[in-house]
Amino acid sequence: MAYTWLMRPRYALEVDATRDTTDISGTLYRIRVENIGYARLTNISAYMGVGDIDTKDFLDPGQTYYFYPNPDTLGGNIKVTSAEGIEVMTSYRTPAKVLGLPGGGR
To answer: Does the global pTM surpass 0.70?
Structure first.
């Protein structure tokens, strides 16, 4: 366990932007960010569309946070940055659905 923890980079951020269609609420957009490094990340900013920027003061190692874009700014690419120089660009993905499970469609 200690070996695995020490092999991590000092600053690292994992970003997973999902577009999930459900039977009840329609389409849900969310951006999950997780600090996968071993040092605190500060001033995290998520650029989710024109004029739609949200921030989080810090993320400790292993901590996860969710950003939710405004419904009228949904679109292409998401950029997440931190004061430590991390910059992650991604686009929304749609998770696979399994029939028979809630939100799985029919």
So the answer is: yes
> Which domain CATH number covers 78?
2.60.40
For the stretch 88-103, pLDDT in tens is 999 988 877 666 555 5
Judge whether 91 and 77 are in contact, CB under 8 Å: yes
Q: Could you give the CA distance from residue 56 to residue 31 in angstroms, rounded to a whole number?
A: 13
Q: Which residues have C-beta within 8 Å of that of residue 64, sequence separation ≥ 6?
A: 32, 33, 34, 35
Instruction: Tell whether 97 is covered by a domain.
Output: no
Is residue 41 one of the residues assigned to a domain? yes
Please give the torsion angle defined by the CA atoms of residues 90, 33, 17 and 9, in that order, rounded to the nearest 10 degrees.
40
- Domain hosting 34: range is 2-91
- pLDDT for res 106: 45
> Which token pair is 86?
């991390």
CA 57 and chain centroid, separation? 15
